[in-house]
User: Fold this.
Amino acid sequence: MTNTNEQWSSKLGFIYATAGSAIGLGAIWKFPYIAGMSGGGAFFILFLLLTLFLGVPLLIGEYVLGRHTGKDAILTYKKLAPRSPYQLTGWLGVIACFLILSFYSVIGGWSLLYLGSSLTGQLSGLTLGESQNYFDNLIANPALALGAQLTFLLLAAFVVAKGIQKGIEKVSKWMIPSLLVLLVILAVYSLTLDGAAEGIRFLLYPDFSAIDGETVLFALGQSFFALSVGVSVMVTLSSYASKKQNLPASAMVLAVMNIFVALLAGLVIFPGVFTFGFTPEEGPTLIFAVLPAIFEQMAFGQLPLIAFFVLFLFAALSTAFSLLEIIVAAFVRGNQTKRKRASWIFAILVFIVGVPSALSYGLLSNLEIGERSFFDTVDYVTSNILMPLGALLICLMIPRKISKEILWQEFTSGSNAGKRLFALWFALIKYVVPLAICIVFIDQLFGLNLVTIIFG
Assistant:
């Protein structure tokens, strides 16, 4: 049992809430543009393999930690690894979630602005160049960028303030199915385009010669980002889970859903990219600058465009709920009387920290850190350094600080998992996952080209 007065109301409620955290902008915004810049099919195959063999074991590990202790991210590690460096893992996760939400809310704000623009017809009739100019001018406007970011965070705070069942779970139960239905409809629509075959080929046909150490690092970061692992988000969310919850099955369902959503997002975007002569290497602006121009050239283009930005807003909010919940839970410590105030206070603090990211494409466009904008720097540090580092610490801690008996009890509670499945998971979490993370890190830090050698 948890040390709070709340739990998810059902097994499905837990799935919806964790899916809301994972199936967000990581799959719909980030995956398509990173895949576009990283060779398409080779990146997708890497992402799939890393998700299944590294992400899922780590996800199960976070589930086990959270449900066993029934505590927030910070108290979980304090309880399990007192007076050891592993205690810092919880703080690392909360800080990373704070930073992720600070730039994530900027994109959430853009989704609000673009939903409004699509509803009012301001995106109608734009060529690619005009669409790019519209996007550049919109995000360079400090009042619009900051106002939209703040509005987005206040929406997230409103839901989190209502609590686990009445807030996050209640909203996720209708938001996640709606998101999936909209995504399927848009994917089917895109597959009717003339360039659909070329878009599918780009997304699914692997060219492994395009893989280097940075590609694997991006794929690893994306697999962790997409599953919300490495920063103890799932530790906190699973602290509200009952002992009847089947943790291994829940993790696999979430992973399959995430891969499926990433695939659908690629099928929505890349057929249009190739049909109308655009390039997939547009980067973070692919959704906002290119997609409106693509939809403009389709039949009934404004309707799917509006549907897409409704979908995009749902995806952004669903993940924002979980990121803010991790921060709030760490300071509420089970005292639900503090939840409302904490939700609003931390939303404002995240907004303040996120101001430089929101202004990275306007007033602070000249502020660069190592040739990256402030926005891109925060994204890179959290996705490719803090998340893998947090994941490494979790993998090192689990077999060293928790007995196999306790791990077995949590792994099998609510499931009929056998000893072979448990042994496979334990071997992956103890040896394979940390070794893979270390190889990628060393490859990047010292330029040893280990990944290139492995892939020939």
Remarks:
- Residues 88-119 form the longest helix (32 residues).
- Residues 11-454 form a domain with the Hydantoin permease fold (CATH 1.10.4160).
- The two ends are 50 Å apart (CA to CA).
